[in-house]
Amino acid sequence: MTDTVLPALRSRTLVPARYRAPGDRVFKTVVVVLASGIIALALAMAVVIYLEAAPTFRAFGYVSFLTETTWDPVAAIHGALPFILGTLLTSFSALLLAVFPALGVAIFTAEYAPRWLAEIINYTVDLLAAIPSVVIGLWGIFNFAPQIRDAVYMPIYMWALEDAEWLVPIIGAPSTYNFVTATLILALMIVPYTVALSRDAIGQVPKEQREAAWALGATRWEVIRNSVLPYARTGIIAGILLSLARALGETMAVAMLIGNRNRLPFTLFGPAATMPSVIINEFREAVEPLHYSSIMAVGFYLFIVTIGINLLASWIQQKLSLTKGTL
Amino acid sequence: MSSVEQGQAVQSAPAYHTNDRHPAPERISGEAPRMQTDNLTVRYGVSTFGIRDVSMPVFDRRITALIGPSGCGKSTFLRALNRMHDLGADIEVSGAAYLDGENIYQPGVDPVVVRRRVGMVFQKPTPFPTKSIYENVCTGLRLAGIRRKSVLDEAVQKALSDAVLWDEVKDRLKSPGGSLSGGQQQRLCIARALAVEPEVLLMDEPTSSLDPNATMRIEQLIQQLKQQVTIVIVTHNMQQAKRVSDYTAFFYVGEMVELAPTPEIFSSPKQPRTAEYLHGTFS
Lengths: 327, 283
Known about the structure:
The structure holds two protein chains of two kinds. In chain A, 75% of the residues lie in helices and 1% in strands. Chain A is mostly helical. Chain A has a single domain (45-319), classed as MetI-like (MetI-like fold). Chain B has a six-stranded mixed beta sheet, sandwiched between helices. In chain B, strands 1, 2, 3, 5 and 6 form a five-stranded antiparallel beta sheet that branches. Chain B is built from ten helices and eleven strands. The radius of gyration of chain B is 19 Å and the shape is globular. By secondary structure, chain B is of the alpha/beta class.
């Protein structure tokens, strides 16, 4: 038996396998090409956007383009500050609004809810995340925005006119499509992401970690605070930053609801703009070369901001990884 | 719940009773039990028994080892002693377990309080990885509401010394618990459990993930600890049971087959199944 089978299997030579199996080399070549293709593509994109934006940088300078408060294509003045401020303000406010409710939902489904209820909630959250943002924008335009203007903004504005005049320049006259409405919708849109990502992070906490806290006489909330949340913090923070990245890049619903005002100052209840919203609104009309390259420049900075956020996310993740450092 | 729900003093707890399957050796009735179970039964789902009608004492400041083949119910029994089964879905516990004469399963008993008096150390070391060594040991004390720094400092030093870890970590109490070696982590977990001064310490295969050297240190530690605390240890290693324990209980298919002083059970087991297991007829 051994005499008949083994000789066929046994290699007669000690020459390394790579010289005998061409399939190995072919496969390796294919995956190397594919993987480096991704990097090349990303780099090429950055380079092309930069080159297209170059005329704007030459005309206004890298820094002045960032600090100029006016965007007026007719007068050929292009400043990105309104959009950068608009993007950062809407995104961070939306994140602030979304994080705590989202964490609450994630903790509730992972730790408190009976399984059937948790499944219903999780399913609904996933469903919310899957709604195309243009659909949310539609609902916002025709239903949410006018209603919240009449029910909330108007009374606040009226009250401010009467009793708190110093507030008026901050909140501004309510328009249907405005900064606050866009922020609220943005918050609503990132909640499912934050919930899903932090839920997964909480789900990764080993049973032993929970039991260790239980065995010390911890109550349910104490187990969550002492054992679950610290263990899951890296994942939760990563989830929050990914939600932020999504908020920064969210285009459609924001462009539909923010009212699109291209110059500072913005007011809370007045129209504003973000980097994605100005790009989506103006790319069709950008026939002037400078206008076109300025839109490219806004895109270039958006690219930089999102890359920055992602780098920050991975840096924080490393900083907080379980083996390093205490909080 | 069981028929036995009066839980007063130790004397009124049911005497260690037995039936044909669970003969009680007369010799051990002289010791004072710290815990005592009475027909303790744990069911997973409707029909799967984890343990069935286990009645046995856990003697005060003695080390009781639970041995038996995998799936015999020894861990299930251990976890029933501090109500860890409350946390699992579809687990039903019946019968009684007395701690100082009080049934921990009677209505109105707060499982959180039970777990503060009956501590537990797990198979894998489970330090809280984001907390410092100091804070790991403090966790139970802080949960109990202790805030005074001087009290905490003292308790941490005592617990770490009792766990024979103090000398190794006293200069780096602020570094994370996860930075220690496996054996140190397990001693940290023991220190964490000891810090709240439990009456009983349950250990679920505490050395199974450690190397021989670390195992030896933990075994020495367990021997020292019995001066102050009652210990129940689950082990899959018969030699370990022989080395560390005063009493050994043999579990098989969810039942407690035999409980006897350790030298006795290893030299002259009364039950044929115990003898077969100890002699390696099955495992």
